[in-house]
Design goal:
Layout: E1 2-6, H1 15-23, E2 27-32, H2 41-46, E3 49-52, H3 59-73, E4 78-80, H4 87-96, H5 105-112, H6 117-124, E5 131-133, H7 137-147, E6 151-155, E7 165-167, H8 170-176, E8 185-189, E9 193-202, E10 208-215, H9 220-225, E11 231-234, H10 240-252, E12 258-267, E13 280-286, H11 294-302, H12 306-316, E14 329-335, H13 345-352, E15 356-361, H14 367-370, E16 373-379, H15 382-393
Parallel strand pairs: 1-2, 1-4, 2-3
Antiparallel strand pairs: 5-8, 6-7, 6-8, 9-10, 9-12, 10-11, 11-14, 12-13, 14-16, 15-16
Helix pairs in contact: 1-12, 4-5, 6-10
Length: 396
């Protein structure tokens, strides 16, 4: 099997996807914008060959890289980055090289459009916020009269909280549309509640080989815009109600042979047309793993190896990693350079010791949402988890 992995060096932990494929005899061929001598040695050891190009934004250069691999090694079987930023690049390459093991250009465009998600949620029986494509101020005002303020505006196709904003009244709505945004936007009714995710590795029939549940703060947009400290965690078990909705969405969206990250609101108060307090409402579906080191957090929470489970899916379309009965909370607590904290790094390590599984600086590309430095730890109870977050993020 020839597997072309696009940008395998970012996030830094993605060398493990390549490593687990290589252990199964897959020929892993990397294309990236980091010079070879700057790659992590573990990634170098996992790759059969690496093609460096100064910019992955240059499609002709990336196309030539895949063509070179195809000429040298034969037909390419998979092309994947597992990275939101390169989903469209992956799809274009698949389409141009007739690689059918992942979505092509048209399917990725549909899966990334927040407007196109609405009928797919409806087909799965999952409630979602009412939405309007941004066209004119008059149309936006009509929508606001229908659903009421506040509203939430976000790019129709976008990553994370980039460009998202809350609109609290008509004056803010008019300011938002004057001048009109340069890229397509949607506005939605505001949904009160926390954000949770259903994460899964799916086989070729949309069946989950692995499942995980995360809990987030109410608004990642607020975290980024106001430079708040971020904390989120993987739970030891998935709420059965969320599991049912996530599996239904996988089928409705036609998701196959992928690592996926589906976000839901959990209502903090009842909302007509959406549900009662505690019910789940569809937010958006992402056809890639959750960002940063979250796959490692899943490993810690569930005593497993999601990189190997993913590689099993690629190579065998089934799970070979045994299921473990050991599970815990795995929590991420971020800190920012501009804040003064009550407790030093040494004090944190002295207090929490072996509970800390990872720590270190966060890449600048994702620091707006993920903070500048993070600690990741595991705990058996929610009380221990929350005490850890308070201690790490307490300001001086």
């Amino acid at each position: 099997m020839n597997f072309v992995f696009v940008s395998p060096q970012f996030p830094s932990g993605y060398w493990q996807f390549c490593d687990r494929l290589g252990r199964q005899g897959v020929r892993v061929l990397g294309i990236g914008d980091t010079p070879y001598d700057q790659l992590d040695q573990r990634l170098r050891d996992s790759l059969a060959e690496y093609y460096y190009t100064p910019s992955l934004e240059n499609y002709d250069a990336v196309f030539r890289a895949v063509a070179f691999f195809s000429y040298k090694y034969g037909k390419v079987d998979w092309i994947e980055s597992n990275n939101e930023y390169w989903l469209e690049l992956d799809a274009r390459l698949r389409t141009d090289f007739n690689v059918t093991t992942g979505p092509g250009v048209e399917e990725v465009a549909r899966l990334r459009s927040k407007a196109c998600m609405k009928p797919l949620y409806a087909a799965a029986g999952i409630p979602s916020a009412r939405q309007e494509r941004v066209t004119t101020l008059a149309a936006a005002r009509r929508f606001s009269l229908e659903v009421g303020f506040p509203l939430f505006a976000k790019p129709e196709v976008g990553m994370g909280a980039d460009g998202a904003r809350k609109i609290c009244d008509e004056a803010e709505l008019a300011a938002f549309l004057s001048p009109a945004p340069q890229r397509p936007y949607v506005i939605e009714e505001f949904v009160p509640g926390d954000i949770v995710s259903y994460d899964a590795i799916l086989d070729s029939h949309s069946n989950p080989l692995f499942e995980n549940m995360e809990e987030f703060p109410p608004s990642m947009a607020d975290v980024a815009e106001r430079s708040l400290d971020l904390a989120y965690w993987c739970r030891p078990k998935v709420d059965p109600r969320l599991r049912s909705l996530g599996r239904a969405a996988a089928v409705s969206f036609g998701l196959r042979s992928r690592f996926v990250h589906m976000e839901f609101f959990r209502l903090s108060q009842s909302r007509p047309g959406l549900g009662e307090t505690g019910d789940y409402v569809g937010l958006e579906v992402n056809v890639r793993p959750p960002g940063g080191h979250t796959p490692d957090m899943m490993d810690f929470a569930h005593s497993t190896d999601v990189y190997q489970i993913w590689a099993d899916m690629v190579c065998h379309d089934r799970r070979l990693v045994p299921r473990s009965a050991r599970a815990s909370y795995c929590v991420y607590a971020g800190r920012r350079k501009g804040h003064r904290y009550a407790h030093s790094d040494g004090e944190i390590r002295a207090r929490f010791g072996d509970a800390i599984r990872m720590s270190g600086p966060v890449p600048s590309a994702i620091a707006d949402e993920m903070c500048d430095y993070s600690y990741t730890a595991t705990f058996q109870t929610a009380r221990e988890r929350d005490a850890f977050v308070r201690y790490v993020q307490r300001l001086a």
